[in-house]
Amino acid sequence: MRLSREKTNKLSHVIISQFVASDDVDFIEDRETIRQEVLQILNALLKDEEKMDAEVRKKISSQKKAIPEGSKEWDILYDKYYAEELKRLGVQEKS
Predict the structure, then answer these.
(1) Res. 93: pLDDT tops 90
(2) Is position 15 within any domain?
(3) Residue 29: which domain range?
(4) In this structure, is residue 94 part of a structural domain?
(5) Which of 33, 50, 74, 93 is placed for a possible disulfide with 29 were both Cys, Cβ 3.0 to 4.6 Å?
(6) Residues 36-62, buried b or exposed e (16+ Cβ, 10 A)?
């Protein structure tokens, strides 16, 4: 998924706001330092997701027959290969 810098920045602020609102979170670093770390984590996760998406698309395009993107078959293969990539990385998809 591609998110603009503004959107990831906004998301990091929303996450920190949730931490601040929680009685279960105590800050041992200043909020801006933590927000910057959250932003780095978000960007790393988005980059990993882009790599997975590219790998899945590559697998689909390497099929013997051409499968048009947006077709039901393409969507089924995308979901299957994406789940396989998640499993390979040790990430379980929620059912």
Answers:
(1) no
(2) yes
(3) 5-88
(4) no
(5) 33
(6) eebbeebeeeeeeeeebbeebbebbee
